[in-house]
Amino acid sequence: MQSVQQMDWWMIRERCLIECLPIMLCLGQQLSQLMYKVESDKEAIELFRRMISGQIQPNQFSFSSVLKASCMLRAEDRMEDARKAFDILFEKNLVSYNAIVDGYAKNMKSEETFLLFNEITDTGIGINAFTFPSLLSGAASIGAMGKGEQIHGRLLKEGFESNECICNALISMYSRCGNIESTFQVFDQMEDRNVISWTSMITGFAKHGFAARALEMFLKMLETGTKPNEITFVTVLLACSHVGMISEGRKHFNSMYKVHGIVPRREHYACMVDLLGRSGLLVEAMEFINSMPFMADALVWRTLLGACRVHGNTELGKHAVEMILEQEPDDPTAYILLSNLHASIGQWRDLTKIRKSMKERNLIKEAGYSWIEVENTVHKFHVGDTSHPQAWEIYQELDQLAAKIKEMGYIPDTDFVLHDVEEEQKEQFLFQHSDCHTAINPFETD
Fold first, then answer.
1. From residue 217, how far is each of 182, 222, 245, 287 by CA, in Å?
2. Residue 377 backbone dihedrals phi, psi, to 5 degrees
3. pTM (predicted TM-score)
4. Which of 82, 304, 407, 435 is the most buried (most CB within 10 A)?
5. What's the pLDDT tens digit per position in 104-138?
């Protein structure tokens, strides 16, 4: 059969009829073939759109293929297309449910993920091992550890506690939700571990400040004969960076190709720039960038820019911004980092110019937020947020916590509050930005 690129839609349909093949099977195969080529994701979705606009009902083959394409493109309207296709399926089975659940989880749509899981349960279709990793990923994406623990209990009831893929998803979920004890417990109880298991555990230790444990776990991994991959080394290098282990980081970076045959990628070079930059070796970091075997991308320059902001190197920071904007001229992050750099050394006039330039170019950076789950409800907070229905009580609790930790010797680092305001207000911004999720927990459980 000719490729989709060479055949008109109606020719495909007519050819299927002539050869007495089911139209849907033919289209499902066409979509599946397109999925073997990454560059054909958009084409697969367009073919699917024509299919349903021609009043042809999708089947499991075509639906699964188009959903994979939607997930890879990770676009809002693509998931909407996938959901429409799912809703018009004449007969939904566990394959189609797992596919749409996985799509929502990958696109950070946790609420939809769990609603569909409840629907699966209500229909009585049953659950298999492919359902749980997506559910755990959905819980992890919003830090809903309570929801993750419920899923953990359900999979134990279903008898999947020894499934390697599910155990890896559990390790990732507990780690991303901040429960390093449960993370290690799941890892320790695994009968068989692969590189994903080890890397997830190393990542958990590194993310939560246990760099020494992360590196110790890496050595144990090597002792078992498990071969590390590119992601493993990203985590190992980040662990070295977080505790300033420069020589250790260099050793592992150099061992990638020499010992393990892994060619370092841009992410690994960015980790090394981060390691040198965090330690204040900005000139050496710049020299390292110049020695790279390929042109540094925006990720590397952002890493250097972040280090310049911490150490107050405006000149090198400006150069990093120029290199970022040369590659990504509409990136608001570069402007924000540069304005933060000016703010950290009190150059408020320069900061104002940059913010004005951003406004003229209509560049907006999405505001960051923190969150906490209490009794199966996720509470989100932006800096200075007063939208929560219990905001007054939360800030009262924050004031009490701030007073207590100051009595214990804590001194707020207001250099990182990038507003031209009085010192007392800077402290208030600092506490409100980082600790609303801390304050709500004791308040909610009283």
1. 16, 9, 16, 31
2. -120, 130
3. 0.68
4. 304
5. 777 767 778 778 787 877 877 777 788 888 888 88
